[in-house]
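The instructor's notes for this session suggest beginning with a concrete chain rather than abstract definitions. Hand out the sequence below and ask the class to guess, before any prediction is shown, which regions might be ordered.
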Amino acid sequence: MPASRPDNYEQLPPLAAEDYTCDVCALVYPEITIDDAVGVIVGLPGAVRAVVSAIPPAACLAKDGDWDRIATRLPGEDRTARWLVRQAMDEGIHHLGDIRRIGGISG
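After discussion, reveal the predicted structure:
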């Protein structure tokens, strides 16, 4: 049975190919076993907690102007610290939704 599509599927970017190689981390999809992938996924909540916990408390109490600091990943791709936090939340929500849909899990 094919996975159901979200209502806004026309707006979604294409998925990476089955033979995808990540330019950033050199991860090669065909070389990753399912057991290895699941092991990494299982460890993600702890890794996220560790990274977030390492943020100095003062950074979480940043003044409004501090959230306007700019980060640049690619030329012309300037984003604020505020955007980065919101984007991290949004990506997590969407990826969790993808896993639920593909796995047939509700909730």
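Then share the key points. The beta strands are 70-72, 78-80. Residues 20-54 form one domain.
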